[in-house]
Write a structure and sequence with these properties.
globular, 13 helices, 57% helix, mainly alpha, 281 residues
Length: 281
């Protein structure tokens, strides 16, 4: 028998056609829940894109948090080789988050206005995972937690992340364990407060960069942190321009100033000394 054009002959493949007694692809991924979680509240076509883009971003952020948690554990144990592999993976995750703004930017102002009212006061400002990411990377802001007062689970998670050492705190501890002088007041500070740039820390990193061959792992740690920070800055910038493109200078749905609020974070750097020493190289 001649195989019809455009088809693939599966007669020699041992396909499991009957999955009645086996774990299926759909069951493993819980696709019924995943694909059944998009419920537009308006009849506007573009609301589906808006919902899915934010849901996908939350999934990528969940993976980033998962990977960063493992990375922190490796850094605490001075196992920097595995940590660098995770840094590279997180960079790719960040790229996916960055590119998501390109898709959202295809919604026109008129199209967004047609379903914006359905959002009520919901806003990305209320994203627990985004706040956990910022806390983990060192942007500690206790006031942010107030928006989660009615969500005990989120509140507990954020309070724990607020008081825990950040990725940068653990990286500086790693520097100190390698014999590179880091001030004790930096290593033993109140971790619930935002990190403040320190001249002695800058000098420590500068020494690492001037002796990269001898301190290769510490140099690579510094560069990995810079890449992480750089991608986060790109993400923020793309967020601002996408919001400006869609709603201009209107206030955000969560009560913030919208673009004016988002712009405040554009100059924020998680790891300030790693940027400042570049001027001194």
């Amino acid at each position: 028998m001649t195989k019809p054009e455009g088809t693939v002959d599966l007669s020699d493949e041992k396909i499991h056609w009957d999955l009645g007694r086996s774990f299926s692809y759909s069951e493993y991924l819980h696709l019924d829940k995943l694909l059944g979680s998009q419920h537009p509240l308006s009849t506007q076509h573009d609301e589906m894109l808006f919902i899915m883009m934010h849901q996908v971003s939350e999934l990528w952020m969940k993976l980033a948090l998962y990977e960063l948690g493992e990375m922190l554990a490796f850094i605490k144990r001075d196992a920097l080789g595995p940590a660098f592999a995770i840094f590279a993976r997180v960079s790719h995750i960040q790229q996916q988050l960055l590119q998501s703004w390109d898709v959202l930017g295809t919604i026109s102002p008129a199209e967004f206005a047609a379903f914006r009212e359905a959002l009520g006061k919901s806003s990305g400002f209320q994203s627990r995972q985004y706040r956990l990411l910022e806390f983990m990377l060192g942007n500690k802001n206790a006031a942010i937690i107030n928006v989660f007062r009615s969500d005990p689970q989120s509140l507990t998670m954020l309070e724990s992340a607020l008081t825990a050492p950040s990725l940068y705190d653990e990286s500086l501890r790693c520097l100190a364990r390698r014999g590179i002088p880091v001030p004790s007041q930096v290593l033993e500070r109140d971790f619930s407060l935002p990190y403040q740039a320190n001249a002695a820390v800058a000098a420590a990193w500068l020494g690492v960069y001037h002796n990269a061959a001898a301190d290769w792992e510490m140099y690579q740690l510094g560069e990995s942190l810079v890449e992480l920070d750089y991608k986060f800055q790109l993400w923020r910038s793309a967020h601002v321009k996408t919001v400006e493109r869609v709603i201009g200078s209107q206030p955000g749905t969560g009560g913030s100033g919208g673009v004016s609020y988002l712009t405040k974070a554009l100059d924020l750097k998680f790891f300030p000394e790693l940027w400042s020493i570049r001027t001194s190289m």
